[in-house]
Write a structure and sequence with these properties.
With 265 residues, this protein is of the alpha+beta class. The chain has helices at residues 32-42, 74-88, 129-135, 155-160, 163-173, 209-223, and strands at 2-10, 19-25, 46-52, 58-64, 69-70, 94-99, 102-109, 112-118, 123-124, 141-144, 148-151, 179-184, 191-197, 202-205, 227-232, 238-245, 248-253, 255-264. 48% of the residues are buried.
Length: 265
């Protein structure tokens, strides 16, 4: 069996930036254990599998980390949309995905692509004391939405946080083993964040659309605006333009092709 594979860097400001995702177009769903094995072999934070429907602009979409299937992944959705719109159906302007998180769309946008995701519903939450100690940073506020999140005093505190501290805190913060660490940005970003997800098999994710969608409503209230620019300060890094529309959020950025090849099984 040979399967086509694209690797696309989502939210990449430059080559070798952003978050790499593998996109594997299929004719039909394969066995779950085979999909998981392919994701593990790829060893990227996400592998997206897409299956066409009778309509060229409608596809089915699933996401796998090296460890598990997840209900939503933003960067791999952007990469999947870019794959279809750039390589499979270059005449289309927009593609709609059926997913475990409901309908998601990706469309062409100036300078890249824009996708529509469900926005999070943040509410108050107190991070456990042992997780606070593991993080080793001053926390101004904390909350929980799709993921738990903490707000640090400034961008420097987010950037200087040792990855080992974030990973340890994520393991202790919540049963999911995931944690968003964020702060007000400066310069070209309203918000700076990092995302640690050892519970999902990804110690630190490079640029995380679902994490940004999770905290966007909270930051919109704090900043008093619905259009914002986020920067995820991982070693690879990437900017994401954010626009909140009620219970939906639009995330926009670039998607850079890295490789195109074949999986041989």
């Amino acid at each position: 069996m040979k399967l086509e594979l694209y690797q696309i860097d989502a939210f990449a400001d430059a080559p070798f930036g952003g978050n790499p995702a593998a996109v594997v177009p299929l004719e039909r769903w394969l066995a779950d254990d085979l999909l998981q094995a392919i994701a593990l072999e790829n060893n990227l934070s996400e592998t997206a599998f897409i299956v066409p429907t009778e309509a060229a602009a409608r596809w089915r979409l699933r996401w796998f980390t090296p460890a598990m299937e997840v209900p939503l992944c933003g960067h791999a959705t952007l990469a999947s949309g870019a794959c279809i719109l750039r390589h499979i159906h270059p005449n289309l302007q927009k593609v709609l995905f059926e997913s475990a998180s409901g309908p998601l769309s990706v469309r062409r946008a100036q300078g890249g692509f824009a996708m529509d995701l469900p926005a999070g519903t943040p509410h108050a939450w107190t991070m456990p004391d042992d997780a606070v100690r593991a993080l080793g940073a001053a926390i101004e506020e904390s909350g929980i939405s799709t993921y738990p999140f903490v707000v640090l005093p400034d961008e420097n505190a987010v950037r200087s946080l040792a990855a080992a501290q974030g990973i340890a805190a994520a393991r202790l913060a919540h049963a999911s083993g995931e944690l968003v660490v964020c702060a007000p940005g400066r310069g070209d970003a309203d918000v700076v964040l990092r995302f640690f997800a050892p519970g999902a098999g990804v110690d630190e994710d490079p640029v995380t659309g679902s994490a940004i969608a999770c905290i966007a409503p909270w930051w919109a209230r704090r900043l008093g605006k619905s259009a914002m620019r986020f920067y995820q300060a991982s070693p690879r890094g990437g900017h994401v333009s954010v626009a909140l529309h009620g219970d939906r959020v639009t995330l926009a950025g670039q998607a850079r092709d890295y490789l195109h090849g074949w999986v041989t099984i």
